[in-house]
Amino acid sequence: MSSVVDRTFAILELLSTVPDGLSVKAIAEHLDMPPSGTHRLLGQLVQTGYVSQDRVQGDYGLTMRAAAIGMSFLRRSKVVEITQPILDSIAQEAHELVRLSVLETDGLIWIGVAQGATVGLRYDPGEDQGQIAHLASSASGLAWLSTLDDDAALMRAARAGFQTETSGPNAPRGAAELLERLGETRARGYSIVIESFMAGMNAMAAPIRHPDNGQGIGTISISGPSVRFFPSTMEALGPRLMSAAEDLGKMAYASQFFRRALSSQAD
Can you tell me the mean pLDDT for 204-227? Predict the structure, then answer.
């Protein structure tokens, strides 16, 4: 991270994952930044009101002012408002977690959710909202990569790596395996991952395409525990999920967020 802006936003993104806050030392070590420079940036963020410091432990954490920016943007962009009925409908039919992701710069960001599981074991990773989906191992990532040609898909996936520290046992181990899964996804029309993004969790996703040119601008996914959400269940839900993705694509004109996602991919 070469600029002050890079370091500042890295701090904000890190603190967004730790609601209880972190010490200057922990932040500096995690981001590989000098403690003195980290302390200086935190002081400036405190002055602006986006970060606060605990008076007892001295840890730094985000304020609600920082969260309000994202919530205000989503509300004004209308993307959640216009897509929520479709997410809710799919969740009620699948009885599992349904999520919406939208393309932003080089990643897919989860911004919408509907929980369809009302009893028993539930997959409900609330901390993933607002986070970037791992392209190679997640169902959403695989579905969106399938809208690109092989070279472009491999380039995008390689930037984040084929696996992460939290990837499941079936995450792709290299380019050849990823390309095979992309071929299957294109032929099927939607992705299926079995304990790839996370151990004990299966998922499926369909790409959302812009109605004018067919470019992928997001995904809609269904996720559930592997002990219940079987491949046969996902195959039965496939046509319904693709229909929902098509409906969401038609909404691209209704929200500036979708238009920005399209221009982001073009860049």
Answer: 93
